[in-house]
Design brief:
CATH class of the largest domain: Mainly Beta
Strand content: over 45%
Shape: globular
Number of strands: 16
Number of helices: 4
CATH topology of the largest domain: Lipocalin
Structural class: alpha+beta
Largest sheet: 10 strands, antiparallel, barrel
Number of domains: 2
Length: about 350
């Protein structure tokens, strides 16, 4: 009899247990959904109103880059002619793959004909960089090493030179630039990522004041004078220079602005500054260590189209670092032109 009561009791209790379990499950399910909604809202709050994320995981982007370094040399007193050396580079082609936040790329230099090597010389170069860019801060590590330059517009210094002749060349002239650039954006609604990396979109036109900090090492070396023979009396200090090591710390100020129309944008960024420069010059008559105040400028511009699946941009970049040497004003320009087309999945 007791067994019969126990069975009946359990049968009556079972639906209650099932209803209670279901209610607890609904509560836990609701709490999970609520937590997910709260987390989603928190993420949405982190994204500024003027910025739109692009929810694509994989992208592929072929590109063409034309890098260069220009040595621009003038006399501070106006004595003597200005002259310039540039490397002979026809460009770099490559491609990059991005999976979420990881970006990997590979590039190779375009081949140069033997005829052009005779006319302009041969340039060996390494141009490496790593950029980490957020909406507020940017960190750029770089190493640029160029060996082999030629003198442009040689008819100004050698009247007998013609276009059929080879350009005056300095195969052992070498420049090395290595360092780190830090940049800070003061307005979260302005996105360098949208303009240059194109990993997100800026909805409307907007700008921001920017701050830059640069730590740089530059080396200039050659086995003989880099001054053209007719100008050597006008550049006595530079004429004796065989190698120089330059360490600079620069603080720069500027701004960036993005002009946006739907998915098209034009974004210029300008930073100008100065700081301290330590020079260690090795001349034919000894070494000289000096402290100077250099001038620094960095100008970039991105012109782009950024849709959900297809994106493209043209990036122009020019950076100027001055190296004052007594009567000589030596300015090292490093620039590049980059064009890329990308697709996202």
């Amino acid at each position: 009899m007791r067994k019969t009561y126990l069975v009946v009791f359990l049968l009556l209790l079972l639906p209650v247990i099932q209803v209670t379990a279901q209610a607890d499950g609904d509560k836990s399910g609701k709490s999970k959904k609520e937590r997910k909604k709260k987390e989603k809202k928190k993420k949405e709050k982190k994204i500024p109103e003027n910025i739109e994320e692009i929810p694509k995981v994989f992208s592929f982007r072929p590109k063409y880059v034309l890098p260069s370094t220009v040595l621009d040399i003038t006399n501070k007193g106006g004595n003597g002619l200005r002259f310039n050396y540039i490397p002979f580079i026809q460009g770099v082609v490559g491609a990059g793959i991005r999976i979420k936040s990881v970006y990997v790329s590979y590039s190779m230099t375009l081949p140069i004909s033997s005829i052009n090597q005779v006319k302009y010389g041969k340039t060996n170069f390494y141009d490496l960089g790593l950029v980490i860019q957020t909406r507020v801060t940017g960190i750029e590590f770089y190493y640029q090493d160029y060996q082999g330059f030629y003198l442009i517009r040689p008819e100004k210094y050698y009247p007998g030179w013609t276009n059929t002749d080879a350009y005056p060349q300095k195969p052992n002239l070498r420049t090395v630039n290595a360092g780190i650039n830090l940049s800070f954006v003061t307005n979260h609604n302005f996105s360098p990522n949208a303009a240059f990396a194109q990993s997100e979109r800026q909805k409307t036109s907007c700008g921001a004041f920017m701050i830059g900090v640069t730590e740089r090492y530059t080396q200039l070396s050659n086995d003989s004078s880099i001054v053209p023979l007719p100008l050597q009396n006008d550049y006595p200090t530079l004429n004796k220079l065989r190698m120089g090591n330059y360490y600079s710390s620069i603080l720069s100020l500027g701004m960036g602005y993005a002009f946006v129309h739907k998915k098209f944008s034009v974004t210029p960024v300008i930073l100008v500054g100065s700081g301290l420069l330590a020079e260690d010059n090795h001349n034919t008559d000894g070494s000289v260590v000096q402290i100077k105040v250099p001038i620094y400028a960095d100008v970039k511009m991105a012109i782009g189209y950024n849709a959900n699946h297809f994106y493209t941009n043209l990036i122009l970049n020019a950076e100027m670092n001055s190296l004052p040497l007594d009567e000589t004003r030596l300015q090292v320009y490093h620039g590049s032109i980059e064009f890329g087309l990308g697709i996202r999945f």
